[in-house]
Specification:
Number of helices: 4
Distance between the termini: 37 Å
Order of helices and strands: HHEEHHEEE
Strand order of the largest sheet: 3-4-5
Structural class: alpha+beta
Number of domains: 2
Helix content: 25-40%
Number of strands: 5
Strand content: 15-25%
């Protein structure tokens, strides 16, 4: 069995097999790659107490929160909620910012300073 077949058999990513090889996984080198005996590998995993569960990156199942649509109007909704209506609420502008090396759009009330990020963040 080759590297990709072994990865499918144990439901792990192919580079996990490379890590196993560095740890001493039983294998035979051929010209293009490695040949694995599934019985020997199962025994080795059991003896070394190596878990075979796929542990890829976890993705959030929750959808990003929707932006309050009032931010797309001309006045700051936070100020409006506090009772500052009309001209007393901050005027809202769209500004760009770089955060963690990524470009984001932000609606900011001036002069109040209240703001909301329009670009969903997936960190």
């Amino acid at each position: 069995m080759n590297r990709e077949g072994l990865a499918k058999e144990f439901n792990v990513l192919p580079w996990k097999i490379d890590e196993w090889l560095l740890l001493g996984c039983p294998a035979r080198k051929n010209r293009k790659g490695w040949d694995f005996d599934i019985v020997s590998v199962r025994s080795w995993l059991r003896n070394e107490k190596i878990k075979t569960k796929h542990s890829g990156p976890r993705r959030s199942q929750a959808r990003p929160a929707a932006v309050d649509q009032r931010w797309f109007g001309g006045r700051c909704p936070v100020c409006a909620d506090k009772g500052f209506l009309g001209e007393k609420a901050g005027k809202v502008y769209t500004l760009g910012e770089v955060s963690n090396g990524k470009w984001h759009l932000r609606r900011t009330g001036i002069p109040c300073g209240h703001s909301v990020c329009l670009t969903p963040r997936h960190y």
